[in-house]
Amino acid sequence: MPDLSGYQFTSTHEWVRLGGGEATIGISDHAQAQLGDIIFLDLPAVGTRLDAGRRFGSVESVKAATDLYAPLSGTVLEVNDTLLTTPELVNQSPYEEGWLVRLGTIEEGTVQLMDAAEYLSATE
After folding, report:
1. Which among 70, 86, 88, 99 could disulfide-bond with 26, CB atoms 3.0 to 4.6 Å apart, if both were Cys?
2. Regarding beta strands 38-42 and 55-61, do their DSSP bridges make them parallel or antiparallel, or are they unpaired?
3. For all residues of the chain together, what is the average pLDDT?
4. Is residue 27 within 8 Å of 41, Cβ to Cβ?
5. Facing residues of 17 across strands?
6. Confidence band of 1 (pLDDT split at 50, 70, 90)
7. Confidence (pTM)
């Protein structure tokens, strides 16, 4: 598992990593493990405005489907298009190759974010 010290997490199992004026968002290792084999992702288009705490997409697996919620507000700068043809990357590498979207024009929201230690403790 990568060093998660630069990651923050939501209670709905999304993660966010800030850097270079951008925010990268994905789902946690815990979430992908609970979902099982991911087969489809519904992600927003570049230019879409995300609002903290609001639904921005969904993830479907062989076991279940779940909504994705934005940890921060901002505008989608980039979508991980590789996931459209290779959604299993979320299972294989949720913190690196399996990221979902990158945001710019970031604003703090009302979503309570946890550091890695708090999140890992809450999911044990």
Report:
1. 99
2. antiparallel
3. 93
4. no
5. 7, 24
6. low
7. 0.93
Average confidence (pLDDT) over 39-65: 96
112/48 Cα distance (integer angstroms) = 22
Any idea what the Cα angle at residue 84 is, between residues 123 and 17, rounded to 5°? 45
In 1-124, which ranges are continuous DSSP H helix?
A: 29-35, 82-85, 89-92, 116-122
Contact 28, 16 (CB under 8 A): no
Instruction: Give the chain's domains with CATH numbers.
Output: 7-111 (2.40.50.100)
- Contact yes or no for 50/117 (Cβ under 8 A): no
Residue whose tokens read 């979503």: 111
